[in-house]
Amino acid sequence: MSVARTIVKAFKAIEKAEGAGARVRRSVGTHQLQHFSPFLMLDHFTIGEGAGFPDHPHRGQETITYLLEGSVDHEDFAGNAGTIHAGDLQFMTAGRGIIHAEMPGKSVDGKPNVGLQLWVDLPKHLKFCEPRYRDLRASEIPVAKTDGDKVEIKVISGNSHGVDSVRDLAYTPVWILDVTMKPGAKLAQPLPKGWNAFVYTLKGSASFAGKRVEAFHNVVFAQEGDGIDVAVDEAEKEDARFVIVAGQPLDQPVVQYGPFVLNTNEQVYQAMLDFQSNSNGFERAKGWKSVIGKRM
Description:
Fe cation binds at residues 56, 58, 100, 102. The chain has one domain (7-247): Jelly Rolls. The chain is built from 1 helix and 26 strands. It has one helix spanning 265-277, and strands at residues 7-12, 15-18, 22-26, 39-47, 53-58, 61-69, 71-76, 81-85, 89-93, 98-104, 113-121, 132-136, 143-146, 151-157, 159-160, 163-164, 174-181, 186-190, 196-203, 206-208, 211-213, 217-221, 227-231, 240-247, 255-257, 260-262.
């Protein structure tokens, strides 16, 4: 008989200014939830025209960007460029070093671009790997349905009800499930044993382990247990939508200074020096400026 995980805490992500004109609800990477291995940060971002995240560096982590509305353009110093649209994801491994820009696409209807960005730690033996990308288009994401089709699960990464995701998306093992539940629906979602897991709520209200939670909350679960139980009351006026995120904890120290995530203070100092001197992975930064960053 499976045992459901219990809730450790649930808290609302407060919206704040971030980047250049962007609005962000940050839940992982705050005093409420710091270094929940392998997760470093989760931002629920809203960026309109004239805002964005112009040229900035990374080292030592992976970023997973999931676009919910609109489009976001990307460009880096290695010549990589592209656009993700609503329902698409980009998995970026910064590795030894990358400088890139992420800017909102032009909206025909004037609506802002909305999405989630998750920062995931890299195992120490991969901290200095070569940067890489993997775009995952909405059309590639398989869908699982359960409880008489009252529950729909986009299996971005991992497995749900016999449906497997696309493989080899990130180096650090992570599951991401985008779940929509109708009023009266129930879900029992198994998760890998010993992995850290949380839910971020996007819309409506749902009960996790018996606790009713509204939109824009992070629900953190205990490691013990086989999975999580969710229910949406029949009386709810709208569907509930949330993202289940689980990852394999890394047994290593985390030393973070802004966009540099390493294992020692010395490695962080070296990252700052390498960035400033255009060396050891940042050679291509010399004289480079993104085209899309000039929109600011």
